[in-house]
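USER:
Make up one protein:

ASSISTANT:
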Amino acid sequence: MGKVAATFSKPLLCQSKLLCFSLLYLLSALFSAAYFTFSATRCIFRSSPFDPIQSPLFSYPSSYGEHKHSIPTTRSSCNSPLYFSDYFDVFDEIQHILANSTSLGLPPALRYKQGNTDSFGGNFNIQKRLSYFDYSDGEIEIPCGFFKHFPISTFVVVVSAVFNDHDKIRQPRHLGSKTLDHVCFFMFVDDATLNRLHYQNLISSKKSNSNKIGAWRIVKVSVENLYQNAAMNGVIPKYLVHRLFPNTKYSIWVDAKLQLVVDPLFLIHSLIVNENVDISISKHPFFVHTMEEAMATARWKKWWDINGLKIQMETYCENGLQPWNSNKLYPTGKNKLVSFSDKFILCLMFNELEAFNPRDQLAFAYVRDKMKPKPKLNMFEVEVFEQVAVEYRHNLKLGGAGVGGPKLKMAAATSDLFVNGTCGKCERYLLSMWGESHD
């Protein structure tokens, strides 16, 4: 009898390596998505999945590319989750707080120094600025910008700014049904940004005072009498929001490179009201010492004037800046998403930024430690920051000027903050930071 030979072939799915890898990738992606969706360690929680979320607020032309170049997050879970109450409970509580603020009167207003100077902020020297850090008696007049006219004259505002067409304007997501009726979104722009918006047909007229893109009310700023540096002009709406909107009870600053993906009322309620604080700010993802940020700023040329950075750090060291330690509650912050209800620290911060540069991480710890009385701070985890906002890269410009200073000076500046082992007036700070202090 003849033998019957049995032959076996591979399953059809396994005959194509590309198909196998594709299926494996798909299954892995689905597993990861399911895990992070139902994981109990996500950073934000809603008590109700039925919050009245609005549909997208604006439809951009495809050429604008508002969602290009997002920066991926490396943290999908955290140890300190942020809990959100029911939307209507949050809305009612904040409305109650605002109503009481109106009937009982706002806290005693700061008294602002008036006058006319060559600089918008007055450009006071270090001794003069230090004299205003103690506001215990509440009688002194605080310099707080507006020594020149700012060309613009709510209780809750969300503020951002795009100068020199450095970023895209992105719409906030997941807003509740009543939020836009009670929260104002203001986007400050200059001529360069306005021209780009008009070119992209996002606004109908460059001369209109009522331009709006989705949630954002566009406010055109004439920068001729302000600062040559675009980043410094962005500091004005960030730190002087209480001067622009004097009736504001709560404000949130959102860097233009961020897209807010959580209703701002949730953020105010969870990060300010529930914590009973004046300021809520994200911790820095990498650094705890101001000097670490200063060295990174010099190394990566985030600010062009390296010698100016050194003078700034030596000035702060000479006037008492100390490295962070476990006895200090708050390390240096990442000032990209900030919620404010304290006005005093805003004025002090602005004065330091005008004196040196707009890199506000460098002045934050110094101002926080020196001021009296001190604000109540809540510094939330970086993982929370990554869950409430999506971060994007700045616009790419071939051969264009950025928001820093003159590029010609970079060639003559070293990228090291302290060269040849000369630590100057910051030697004690550095030794303490490195754990080599013998004091």
Q: What stands out?
A: The first helix runs from residue 17 to 38. Confidence is low (pLDDT under 50) at residues 35-41, 399-415.
